[in-house]
Amino acid sequence: MSKFLPDQLASTENDLIDSLLTQGSEGWTASYQGLTLKTALQPIFSISHKRIIGYEALVRAFDTDAASVLPIHLFQLPRDAAENLFLDRLCRHLHVQNYSQLSDSLNWLFLNVSPRVVATGRQHDSFFGNLLRKTGLPAHRVVMEIVEQPTDDADQLRETVSYYQQLGCLTAIDDFGAGHSNFERIWNLSPDIVKLDRTLITRATDDRKARQILNGIVSLLHQSGCLVLLEGVETHEQAIIAIDAGVDFVQGYYFSHPSTELPNIASNAPDFETLLADYKSRKQLQLDPSQQIVSFFSDYFLTAITLLKQGSALDRSCQSLLEHPAVSRCYLIDTNGVQLKDTVVAADSRYQVDPRFQPLENTESADWFRQNYLKDALAQPNILQVTSPYLSVTGAHMCVTLSLAYNHHGRIQVLCCDLLANRMEHLSSSL
After folding, report:
1. Residue 350 has pLDDT above 80, yes or no
2. What is the pLDDT of residue 115?
3. Do residues 156 and 241 share a domain?
4. Amino acid 4: pLDDT
5. Based on CB atoms within 10 Å of each CB, which residue in 143, 182, 279, 379 is the most buried?
6. Coiled-coil intervals in this record (predicted)?
7. Which residues form the domain of 328?
């Protein structure tokens, strides 16, 4: 069959596929190499809207005994590129036919597109425009998912994505964050939605650093003009992480399983009210302790600045500050951000210089003009400022910086103090 398939498809478009579709009481099915194919839909939810905004269409295969066949086995059946193309088109035709019959006239249908189909460009996928016209499904309700894989022809990939966009469809990059993902693909294709691979949420569940990376990826994608969907959310804790990361949409077993019972697909809505209430409660318990930190260290700073104004050396002036277990270093900078003299560091063993980062230790005359702790201090002189945790370039460790601008002999100087983020539990016990 396969060697004649391209010519047949070119001449008959959807007619050949139509002959393999059957409409029954529970929707459309398709026949393929002795298997019966059905559409399963998995709801996709907007966290902010607290409701379904779309469905991903997945194929489910059954043998003659109605036993389920794994998708991986189904997609191993095609023997060549032509049959791969045929199976891809058959599945999409089946999904569009089924989705067109639903009473939902608002939400998106997410359709996976085979990388082999994408690589062939608009000539081999013009059938899809015909399919939309035939079924009456508006193109703006379809999201074409492009799996993140390398392609030999980036220009052809861009042309194909452009074809879907010109049809009026939305486009999405699938499985971003795994394998061959890169932001260059985002910039070149300008997708409307980026689907983050489930490995990102799996890692973020057990690793706080991975959670911070997830948050950063979401932020960068938003800045690139993309909406972000996180798939593979399977537990309550992962749902909380997804909310905190700032993703727009979520998908996974925690919210809803895929189902072939299409008329009842939206009947079991998750309890977003309880989920968001839990998240808000946690955030209230984890409020930024900045005001407590400011209150605790205000007297230390006033003492240090009084001594500095009296002519005491920086190390003697900041002695009380440096004795606190969370404090690692103190330093002075001028209004241009240039550091005055070298840094004074805590004398005991709690702050050990990592020999790997010794080239960064000497900061005399360093320029900190770009740092927010300088800008905030200069904007509000004589008021102690505190930053959120950030990565310090002086030793590649996470820290929080306190800063206070004061007048010394007619010149504004800023006293800064770094707190080690991994020692903040000592600070908490002191507050």
Report:
1. no
2. 64
3. yes
4. 39
5. 143
6. none
7. 290-430
Residues 12 and 138 in one domain: yes
One domain for residues 198 and 67: yes
pLDDT (tens digit, 9 = 90+) per residue, 98-140?
999 998 889 999 999 876 666 665 554 678 888 999 899 999 9
Boundary of a domain, candidates 235, 261, 285: 285
257-276 residue pLDDT tens: 999 999 888 877 889 999 99
Same domain, 101 and 190: yes
Q: How many whole angstroms separate alpha carbon 244 and alpha carbon 205? A: 12
Query: Does residue 167 sit in the same domain as residue 274?
Result: yes
Residue from 39, 163, 22 nearest 92 by CA: 39
Nearest CA to 350 out of 431, 418, 428 is that of 418
What pLDDT, in 10s, does the model give residues 211-234? 989 999 999 999 999 999 999 999
- Final residue in a domain of this structure, among 255, 285, 315: 285
Categorize the per-residue pLDDT at 349 as very low, low, confident or very high, splitting at 50, 70 and 90. very low
Same domain for 422 and 352? yes
Claim to verify: residue 241 and residue 130 sit in the same structural domain: yes
CATH at residue 320: 3.30.450.20
pLDDT for res 26: 84
CATH of the domain at 62: 3.20.20.450
Q: What was the pLDDT predicted at 84?
A: 87
Separation of alpha carbons 408 and 405, rounded Å:
10
CA triple 297-300-302, angle to 5 deg: 110
